[in-house]
Structures are given as structure tokens and as C-alpha cells.
Design brief:
The protein is mostly helical. The protein folds into 3 domains: 1-78; 80-126, Rubrerythrin, domain 2 (Single Sheet); 162-310. Helices cover 70% and strands 8% of the residues. The longest helix has 37 residues, at 320-356. The radius of gyration is 41 Å and the shape is elongated. The termini are far apart.
């Protein structure tokens, strides 16, 4: 048995010597040494080693290799785990005696699982501190109306915390606020499509009804603000176009305004469909604002009828045709009738004179 493993001991000892003098290649030697040290530790138990140390002429090599194998495994392998940072991908080493460490490159807090296979370990990222900081930055940007940074931070949050309504809503909301004129319609549609998922998150993860009402009210206010801002931007852009060619862009203006108005309507629709009549007053607020933005508060607008179902006191205005058209028609009818009557009288008089002659 001794002769069979002497070559391994000599190789291991030579690697120990190399570590002391070839500092530039230590990393490569550590890898090879670790492999041989593991092989040594797997081949012998402690009693076998004692027998070998007592009988072999290579006792010095055996003793040194064995002790260094134990030392190396404890200090460089068992105490430090070689890993890649799951956040930035950099190579890091974690102390196996501690539950967590930090990446020296990006500062990510890395939690170490207890199961270690050789010198590799499985890791999980503790993002609680990072999320907390991102929320602080995002809300600070929101309060200061820094829409670009608010969008950036909420987009980072939604990746790490996809079940949070705030990140889900504001990541898309601020994309819309930062859009260019040409993308106003698509931006409004994206926000509208995102409302269903956002309200579902509120329903599934916010249990307190008062808190739900507060959140839904906040969303409704933001939707109305966004709708008004986008319509104003589209209208101002249209008015800045040369009057000679402005009519060519009227259809685009109407499409953009329609998408923004539908955003208010859809907001109310999702509240009604997801929460029933629990927050119907907030749905009514969104619908009424959409009606005002459309400029059509008559029976021809289906949302006026829908509002009337929940709010019987809601006043639907008469259409322009009913307000102005019918009086004009009646006046014309009366004038024509009067003229016809006058013509008939004149005809009768003329006929009577002719009969006398």
C-alpha cells in the first residue's frame, strides 16, 4: 500500500514547496493541490497514516503532505467557499463559518446555504436591504417628480418584487409619462393593459379593505393625471403644426385622445369587474373623468348610461341636435307652413277676382 501511494505523496509535497516560492501561480497550484489532498484524505483513515509514518522511509514526505492536506482543507476550503456573485457574476469567496457575506464588487448581500459539496456551495440572494433602498429611491424620485429616475428604480424593483402592486403599476406608469409624442397612444394602451394585473395584486396581497381603498384611490388619481397630461401634450403638438398642413394630422390627434380617454374608462371597468361594487364610487370617478375628457356627456355615450345606473342623480346633457337642431327644424317647419298658407290665400284671392270678371 505504501509503494502504491508514494508517488502521490511526493507530488503533493512538491506542490507544497511550489506554493512557498511560486506566488504568481498559486491559484493553479491550489486547484491541483486540492484535488490531490482530497484523494489523500479519501484513501486513508487516521490509523493507516500512523502505520505509514512509522514504517516508510518517506515518512517526512508523508507527514508533511498529510498535515498540509488537513491544514489546506480546513483553512482554504472548509473556511472559504469559492462562488460567483449571482448579481454581478464576479468571483467571490465566502467564509463558511458565517451565514452571509458581501460581494466586494457590487455590495450584494449573499446568504450561504448550509449544504456544501467539496469547495462549492449553493447560494441565495438576500434582497431585502437592496429592495428597501430601491423603494426609498423610487419614492423619493416620485415625490420630487423625477420621472426618469422613478421609472428606473421601479423597473428594478418589479424584477425583484413582482408581486408588489406599487412596482407593477409605477414601472409602466412612468414609462408612459416619459414617452414621446408619437408613442402617446401606445403608452396609454400599455398602462391600460397593466391595470388588470395591478388591481389583481391589490386584491390578492392587500387584505385590509381601508388600505385597498387608499391604493385604488391613488391609482385612479394617477390615471386621471396621466390621461390629462397626455391629451394636453398631444393637443399642444397638434396646435404647433403649420395651419396649412394641420388637418393631415387630425386623425392622429383623435387616436391619441381616444386612447387616453379609454384609459379612464378601462380603469373604472377593472375596478368594477375585480372588486364588484365595493369601490364603485372610485370607478364612477374614473368614468366621469373620461366622459368630461371626451366632451360627450349625452345619451350617445354608453358610459353616461353606465354612470346613471350607479348614480341616479347624474345629469346627462342633451345632445347638440336636441338642444339646437330641433328648435331650428320647428322654426323652419313653421315658416314653410306660414308661407304655404300665405300662398294659398293669395291664390284664392286671385281666383275670386278672375271669376268676377
Amino acid at each position: 500500500m505504501i509503494d502504491k501511494y508514494n508517488s502521490l505523496m511526493i507530488q503533493l509535497f512538491c506542490q507544497i514547496i511550489q506554493l512557498n516560492f511560486l506566488s504568481k501561480s498559486r491559484h493553479a497550484i491550489f486547484i491541483s493541490l486540492d484535488k490531490n489532498a482530497m484523494l489523500l484524505l479519501s484513501m486513508f483513515d487516521f490509523d493507516d497514516v500512523l502505520d505509514c509514518l512509522a514504517t516508510t522511509e518517506l515518512a517526512f514526505f508523508w507527514r508533511t503532505a498529510w498535515l498540509y492536506a488537513i491544514f489546506y482543507r480546513r483553512i482554504y476550503i472548509m473556511s472559504f467557499i469559492a462562488l460567483k456573485c449571482p448579481s454581478c457574476g464576479a468571483d467571490i469567496r465566502l467564509d463558511s463559518t458565517k451565514e452571509f457575506g458581501f460581494c466586494q464588487y457590487c455590495g450584494t448581500k449573499v446568504m450561504q446555504d448550509k449544504i456544501v459539496v467539496e469547495h462549492r456551495g449553493s447560494v441565495r440572494i438576500d434582497t431585502s436591504e437592496e429592495l428597501k433602498n430601491l423603494y426609498v429611491l423610487a419614492r423619493r424620485a416620485k415625490e420630487s417628480n423625477d420621472t426618469l429616475n422613478a421609472q428606473k428604480y421601479y423597473e428594478q424593483i418589479v424584477v425583484k418584487d413582482p408581486k408588489n402592486w406599487e412596482a407593477s403599476f409605477y414601472s409602466i406608469y412612468y414609462q408612459a409619462t416619459n414617452c414621446v409624442i408619437a408613442n402617446i397612444a401606445s403608452a396609454a394602451i400599455n398602462v391600460s393593459n397593466n391595470l388588470n394585473a395591478t388591481f389583481q395584486l391589490v386584491k390578492n396581497y392587500i387584505n385590509d379593505s381601508d388600505e385597498q381603498r387608499k391604493i385604488i384611490g391613488e391609482i385612479v388619481c394617477k390615471i386621471m393625471e396621466l390621461s390629462a397630461a397626455l391629451i394636453e401634450g398631444a393637443t399642444n403638438h397638434f396646435n404647433s403644426i403649420d395651419p396649412g398642413i394641420r388637418k393631415q394630422y387630425l386623425q392622429e390627434l383623435n387616436q391619441r385622445k381616444s386612447a387616453c380617454i379609454n384609459l379612464c374608462y378601462d380603469c373604472g371597468n377593472y375596478i368594477e369587474s375585480i372588486f364588484g361594487e365595493s369601490y364603485i364610487d372610485l370607478a364612477l370617478t374614473a368614468w366621469k373623468y373620461g366622459v368630461v375628457q371626451s366632451g360627450n356627456q349625452t345619451k350617445s355615450n354608453p358610459y353616461c348610461k353606465k354612470i346613471k345606473q350607479y348614480d341616479p342623480e347624474y345629469k346627462i346633457k342633451k345632445s347638440n341636435f336636441v338642444k339646437f337642431g330641433l328648435p331650428v327644424i320647428w322654426f323652419v317647419y313653421f315658416l314653410v307652413s306660414l308661407l304655404a298658407l300665405a300662398g294659398y290665400i293669395v291664390w284664392k284671392i286671385v281666383k275670386k277676382k278672375k271669376s268676377k270678371q
